[in-house]
Write a structure and sequence with these properties.
Blueprint: H1 17-35, H2 53-92, H3 95-128, H4 131-161, H5 166-178, H6 181-192, H7 196-220, H8 224-232, H9 237-248, H10 250-275, H11 280-289, H12 293-319, H13 326-342, H14 357-395, H15 397-400, H16 412-431, H17 435-450, H18 457-472, H19 474-490, H20 493-523, H21 525-540, H22 547-554, H23 558-582, H24 586-594, H25 599-632, H26 641-651, H27 654-686
Helix pairs in contact: 1-17, 1-18, 2-4, 2-6, 2-27, 3-12, 3-13, 4-5, 4-7, 4-10, 5-7, 6-7, 6-10, 6-26, 6-27, 7-10, 8-9, 10-11, 10-12, 11-12, 12-14, 12-22, 16-17, 18-19, 18-27, 19-27, 20-21, 20-23, 20-25, 22-23, 23-25, 25-27, 26-27
Length: 688
């Protein structure tokens, strides 16, 4: 018997939970489809039923923010001092000294390879002509990260010391990480004013949860024997915590520092939208707006260099205790200081070192030549993807199939034929014993004909309730319906469905492509050897930078946003698919081989079922990554909640920004809980 066949026994005459859920969803869809001509409110939620939640939130938050604004502005003024000091230190230090310091740190942490990475990485920054802007960005990171570590550390210690508030703090951390970053930039802007301090505070808030989570995890993993020894030594609780438990959790805490650094760097770039500060994020945004894609790509590569350097150095600090000869460290520092002092009158201004400017100009010219020469097939590829894939999924075949796109118009007879084909195919699957697959096929047929953006709201609520019931029981089912109902009542339903359509389409594409690449990486070490550095690079690139290459080729539009989301969200699917397949226990493989199974049978009946929980976790991460990127993609032409959040930021509309951000977070949290529920169910079935 294969692992896939292990399941809880079902008594004769009873449907499984999955079958019952599929039947309920199918009935709800059929009723909505039949009654839609008579009851149009089944599709279009009436405006009279909508609560002015956005206005309520806007008024309440504005009143609250106005009350605390004086204290916030005072804090903002206080934070200008460390920012000015960091700017003065970084911009006042000669560039050879800074390169030497980073190279020396790289040597101590990782030896020659890391020292070379730091040396050549900063040389690239110097040659780009963005040295001043880069130092301003590092100044923001240098101030925001300690603030984030203090805030995250305080939350982590509070959760560890007071278990009663731990669940509440976990919910707050979930909200902080799922609410789109643009959503809480609006209240921060009103509180702290316009300028670089806004980016600093936003970065600290965004970078605090990784530190808090890793501190909680690290303290939970401290061995009980260590805790008991600390208690028996007679130390106070503070001494036990800071002298024993936190040092014992140092490795996990350093992982949190690494993640906080990366989050802060990513957020500093996003905060440039409202910061108006002469940093590298503003340069990326400015050159993108001017369609100077060569310069935008060059500035983006500077960000990538910093991201890689910060990730590798902090990662080494977190995972390795070995440190290289400190004498070499001192020698590098001394040499760079002597070099900077001896040649101080001859050192060129780093802002004038634009050695890579010709490269940027060549990229612009090459892009122009490429689009002129290949514009026809690029346009055809984009249009075909939009007209034959994205648009039908969005609006349904009945509205997407038109004479000027498909060459013919969709008719009622075609709809009937589609439904009959789906029903017959579903019956065949049911006859073969795959009842859930047959029901799911019929439901999918109806969704394809109708379109995600036009799905009736009772059908969506029923489907969410059914999935929640199968994944986690009655409680999760009610939780999903309740949260979706808040979106429905707030008047953001149509925009939520548009976001769900684009995000869902990208997730499906990532699941298919990432799963295949992960499978190929499992079979071929060479493929994994090629894909691993690509995945590493994609995971260190800040979100903003993903927009540049797709804009260079396909310009502004929904298709470009789709590609940017896929590029960012595909990595977890690749990694988790390969990881799940590789880590199947050897005893299970040996048992399958002994029973006479071949390579493909082992993959289908042993490895794939065992890897299913891990692959589902990869899918979960892909979904969260897609939602995170969806808001950034609003800058290049998406509709839905992402666009609402971005417009609210531009108009300083707190109510709309928070409401749309909360709706986006609700969709992400529902998807997260559902996938986690299915993964937990698979682990339970496998006895893990």
């Amino acid at each position: 018997m294969s692992i896939a066949g292990i399941s809880a026994p079902i008594r004769r005459g009873e449907f499984s939970p999955g079958t019952t859920a599929a039947i309920a969803t199918l009935i709800a869809g059929a009723i909505c489809l039949a009654l839609e001509p008579l009851l149009p409110w089944l599709v279009q939620w009436p405006a009279a039923w909508t609560l002015p939640a956005t206005d309520w939130i806007g008024v309440s938050l504005t009143w609250f923010l106005e009350g605390v604004k004086p204290a916030a502005r005072a804090f903002s003024e206080g934070m200008r001092y460390p920012m000015d000091w960091a700017n003065l230190a970084l911009n006042g230090t000669p560039w050879p000294m800074l390169i030497g310091i980073v190279t020396a740190i790289g040597w101590v942490v990782g030896g020659l390879p890391m020292a070379a990475l730091g040396f050549f990485g900063l040389l690239f920054v110097l040659a780009s002509g963005y040295w001043l802007e880069s130092m301003n960005t590092l100044a923001l990171v240098a101030v925001s990260v300690p603030l984030a570590l203090i805030l995250g550390g305080a939350i982590g210690i509070l959760a560890n010391e007071f278990p009663r508030v731990k669940s509440t703090l976990q919910v707050i951390l979930d909200i902080m990480q799922t609410v789109p970053t643009f959503a809480y930039l609006t209240p921060i802007l009103l509180l702290f004013g316009f300028g670089p301090v806004v980016g600093l505070i936003a970065s600290a808030i965004y970078a605090a949860p990784p530190m808090a989570r890793n501190l909680i995890l690290g303290l939970e993993r401290v061995e009980p024997e260590i805790k008991e020894a600390a208690i028996m030594s007679g130390g106070t609780r503070i001494q036990q915590l800071f002298q024993v438990e936190i040092p014992s959790a140092a490795t996990q805490i350093m992982v949190g520092v690494n993640q906080s650094l990366m989050a802060a760097l990513s957020m500093v770039i996003i905060a440039a939208v409202i910061g108006g500060f002469n940093d590298i994020g503003w340069e990326v945004l400015l050159t993108m707006r001017k369609a100077q894609f060569g310069q935008a790509l060059l500035a983006g590569m500077v960000i990538v260099v910093f991201a890689i350097l910060i990730d590798r150095i902090s990662g080494k600090l977190a995972t390795e205790r070995k440190r290289h000869d400190s004498r070499v460290f001192l020698a590098i520092i001394a040499f760079s200081a002597i070099f900077a002092v001896a040649l101080r009158t001859y050192l060129p201004d780093p802002s004038e070192l634009t050695l890579l400017a010709p490269v940027a100009e060549s990229v612009d010219q090459g892009l122009t030549d490429f689009t002129r020469a290949n514009g026809a097939w690029l346009g055809a590829f984009k249009n075909n993807a939009v007209f034959f894939v994205l648009l039908p999924i969005r609006t349904g075949l009945d509205q997407a199939v038109l004479p000027f796109t498909w060459g013919f118009a969709w008719t009622a007879k075609m709809s009937a034929l589609l439904f009959i084909t789906g029903a017959v195919s579903g019956l065949i699957l049911a006859w073969q014993g795959r009842l859930i697959s047959g029901l799911s096929l019929v439901i999918a047929t109806g969704m394809i004909e109708t379109g995600i953006a036009d799905l009736p709201w009772p059908f969506v609520l029923t489907g969410a309730a059914a999935l929640g019931w199968v994944a986690g029981g009655r409680r999760l089912s009610l939780w999903c319906v309740g949260l979706l109902a808040t979106i429905l009542l707030s008047g953001l339903w149509e925009r939520a469905l548009l976001s769900l359509y684009l995000c869902g389409t990208a997730v499906i594409a990532c699941a298919m492509a990432g799963g295949l690449i992960g499978l190929a990486s499992f079979f071929s070490p060479l493929v994994w050897k090629i894909m691993r550095p690509i995945c590493d690079m994609l995971q260190t690139i800040p979100l903003f930078v993903f927009l540049i290459p797709v804009l260079m080729v396909f310009q502004i539009g929904e298709f470009s946003a789709f590609l940017a989301i896929c590029a960012y969200a595909i990595v977890p699917m690749i990694r988790y698919t390969r990881h799940g397949l590789v880590n199947t226990p050897e005893e299970m493989i040996e048992a399958a081989i002994s029973s006479g199974a071949n390579k493909w049978q082992i993959l289908r009946d042993v490895r794939a079922p065992y890897a299913a929980p891990t692959i589902l976790l990869g899918l979960n991460q892909t979904i969260l990554y897609a939602f995170a990127m969806l808001v950034i993609a609003a800058l290049i032409g998406t509709t839905g909640l992402g666009q609402s959040i971005y417009l609210a930021l531009a108009q300083a509309d707190v109510g709309m920004g928070i409401s749309a951000g909360a709706a986006m977070a609700i969709l992400a949290m529902i998807a997260d809980r559902l996938v986690q529920g299915f993964a937990e169910e698979r682990r339970r079935v496998l006895g893990l």
